[in-house]
Amino acid sequence: MGGLQAPGLYLLFPNGHRIDLTRERIESKTEQFLNDPALIPDSVKAAATYAPCAICPEKYTARICHAIMPVLPFIEQVADYMSYDEVTAIYRERDQPAWHGRQTTMQQALQCIAILSLTEYCEVGRTYHVYFRGINPLMPPDEIAARVYRNIFWEHRGHMDAIRDVITRMRHEITITATCQIERLRLICSSDAFINAFVNTQVSVEFLLVELAQYASD
Predict the structure, then answer these.
(1) Could you give the CA distance from residue 36 to residue 4 in angstroms, rounded to a whole number?
(2) How far apart are CA 112 and CA 201, in angstroms?
(3) Are 21 and 73 a contacting pair, CB within 8 Å?
(4) pLDDT tens-digit readout, 23-41
(5) Are 117 and 70 in contact (CB under 8 A)?
(6) pTM of whole model > 0.90?
(7) Hey, which residues does 22 pair with through a beta bridge?
(8) Environment class of residue 117 by beta-carbon count within 10 Å: exposed (0-12), middle (13-18) or buried (19+)?
(9) How much is the CA Rg of the chain, to the nearest whole Å?
């Protein structure tokens, strides 16, 4: 894994290009966007849909929605790739030695980023971090749903009322944050193709939530 030392998500393209989605890279790109009026004009920052979600724990203090941060390194490069272009995705969790790899497409890579955004960056998603143990963004959504349900089940010792309450609340809150993220992205990104592709990635999140509800109803 030459040159891939830091935990995070890496996208490797056949032409040798690489997009690093490490925390350092994401935070650096976020600072660039926040400090460059050409990237995020003051008029955009003043828009109601730019503000963090109403249910965000940091809605009064965050300079930008944290959930959108993993998307920012992509925005300036979206014209270079088509949704069907092949890419190798490699991921390593913090404090874990194992690497996970997957051959995929740009469209599917965006799904990985949607999951990364939900599980590691979204302040609302992170309130459920105990239920995302053992999850990595390269997993298929059905596998993520099964793992999340198992974590919820054991955390609440199999008490179905508590399990259903958690899943109902999670579905409600994550649906709100996903919708807000798309509206915020429309303000920042001028590429309709990229926005449409990212909207499609929310299907993976919606599928995850539906699967969770189905487990709880069985």
Answers:
(1) 28
(2) 8
(3) yes
(4) 899 999 999 999 999 999 9
(5) yes
(6) no
(7) 8
(8) buried
(9) 17
Tokens, residue 79: 């014209």
Q: For the chain, give me the number of helices (H) and strands (E)? A: 8, 4
The C-alpha angle 168, 186, 172, rounded to 5 degrees, equals 5
**Tokens in use for 37?**
């009026």
100 contacts 138 by C-beta, under 8 angstroms: yes
Q: Amino acid identity, residue 214? A: Q
Query: Could you tell me the two tokens for 137?
Result: 């963004």
Question: Tokens 């995850």 correspond to what residue?
Answer: 208
User: pLDDT, tens digit, for every residue of 48-88?
Assistant: 999 999 999 999 999 999 999 988 888 877 667 777 788 89
CA distance 160 to 6: 39
Measure the CA–CA gap between 1 and 100, rounded to whole angstroms.
Answer: 11
